[in-house]
């Protein structure tokens, strides 16, 4: 849901989202941007803020658009009104008044509008976007395991500064109205969520009832729309499936994970990986009971 709304916002602010220029060019005339649209009004927000109910803190990296749209439709009416008031105060845009006055009906219409935009603009690119986000998650998890939270948080974004001695995370926000002061999380936890369309900023939500969340630009987002070209070039030599798998192995991954991300059968993925390994382009590495594949130096050289 966050990527959906943030991608609409990118279309509204193309100059601030230059890294997504190929995608922006393809969808700049979409009806969400060019016609009457509640989604557009909400994505524009106020000073970069989205009403909280639009992007709840995710409780799993595995939910799909249908589940998240269903969650949007089920938002309690009072939550909708409270979140609209928190962002807009007494300056609610006229296009959003029906949503405040009749939340259930308004949420249904909004969900339908977002579902249409998803199918037109994001679904065709979602395998590539999801691969980018999952790659970031795996990378952060590995750094956290090997080097600890200070090292992991220190690499997330230049706007984050972690002081392990004080247990304090300082966040520099470009979009922050009203100004955010110190806040004690008091055991509520903190969820880090990589994003393609958050670039180049970080976004923080600490308001109740959600678990506090920081959304930040995923690593490698600068090459997001170039990756397919590299894979297409390799496909002519390696075959489309093997080129896709090699592309996904920007970070180490196992057979089942690769099958899920590439939309292939695990048996087929295993066979392709064996061929890539025989060619010296990938190598298996055992971690406990898990075997992860990673590009070799020879495989990495194909992307330079």
List the helices and strands and how they pair.
Elements: H1 2-12, H2 21-27, H3 31-34, H4 38-44, H5 65-73, H6 77-88, H7 97-101, H8 103-122, H9 126-147, H10 149-156, E1 160-163, E2 168-171, E3 191-195, E4 203-205, E5 213-217, H11 227-238, H12 240-248, H13 255-262, H14 266-278, E6 282-287, E7 290-295, H15 297-301
Parallel strand pairs: 3-5
Antiparallel strand pairs: 1-2, 4-5, 6-7
Helix pairs in contact: 1-4, 5-8, 9-10, 11-12, 12-14, 13-14
Proportion of residues in β-strands: 5-15%
Instruction: Report the mean per-residue pLDDT as an integer.
Output: 85
Largest sheet: 3 strands, mixed
Structural class designation: mainly alpha
Q: Can you tell me the residue ranges where pLDDT is under 50 for at least 5 consecutive residues?
A: none
- For the record, the count of structural domains works out to 3
Strand order of the largest sheet: 3-5-4
What's the helix-strand series?
A: HHHHHHHHHHEEEEEHHHHEEH
Count of DSSP-assigned helices: 15
How many strand units? Answer: 7
- The portion of residues assigned to helices is 40-55%
* Spatial extent as radius of gyration: 21 Å
Task: Please characterize this protein's 3D structure.
The protein has 304 residues and is mainly alpha-helical. The protein has three domains: 2-126, no CATH class; 128-220, no CATH class; 226-301, Arc Repressor Mutant, subunit A (Orthogonal Bundle), CATH 1.10.10.10. The protein contains 15 helices and seven strands. The strands form three sheets. Strands 3-5-4 form a three-stranded mixed beta sheet. The model has no long low-confidence stretch (mean pLDDT 85).
């Amino acid at each position: 849901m966050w990527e959906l709304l943030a991608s609409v916002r990118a279309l509204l602010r193309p100059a601030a989202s230059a890294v997504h220029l190929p995608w922006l060019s393809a969808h700049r005339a979409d009806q969400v941007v060019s016609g009457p649209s509640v989604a557009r009004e909400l994505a524009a927000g106020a000073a970069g803020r989205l009403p909280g109910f639009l992007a709840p803190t995710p409780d799993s990296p595995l939910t799909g658009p249908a589940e998240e749209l269903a969650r949007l439709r089920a938002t309690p009416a009072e939550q909708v009104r409270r979140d609209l008031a928190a962002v807009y105060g007494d300056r609610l845009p006229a296009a959003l008044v029906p949503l405040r006055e009749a939340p259930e009906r308004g949420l249904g219409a909004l969900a339908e509008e977002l579902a249409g935009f998803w199918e037109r603009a994001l679904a065709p690119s979602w395998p590539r976007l999801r691969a980018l986000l999952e790659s970031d998650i795996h990378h952060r998890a590995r750094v956290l395991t090997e080097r600890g939270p200070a090292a992991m948080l220190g690499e997330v974004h230049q706007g984050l500064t972690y002081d392990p001695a004080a247990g304090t995370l300082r966040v520099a926000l470009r979009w922050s109205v009203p100004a955010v002061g110190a806040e004690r999380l008091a055991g509520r936890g903190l969820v880090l969520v990589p994003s393609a369309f958050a670039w180049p900023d970080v976004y923080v939500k600490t308001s109740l009832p959600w678990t506090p969340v920081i959304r930040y630009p995923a690593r490698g987002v600068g090459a997001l729309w170039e990756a397919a070209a590299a894979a297409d070039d390799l496909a002519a030599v390696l075959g489309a499936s093997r080129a896709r798998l090699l592309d996904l192995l920007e970070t180490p991954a196992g057979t089942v994970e690769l099958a899920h991300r590439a939309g292939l059968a695990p048996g087929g993925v295993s066979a392709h990986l064996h061929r890539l390994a025989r060619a010296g382009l990938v190598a298996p590495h055992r971690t406990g009971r898990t075997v992860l594949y990673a590009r070799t130096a020879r495989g990495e050289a194909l992307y330079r």
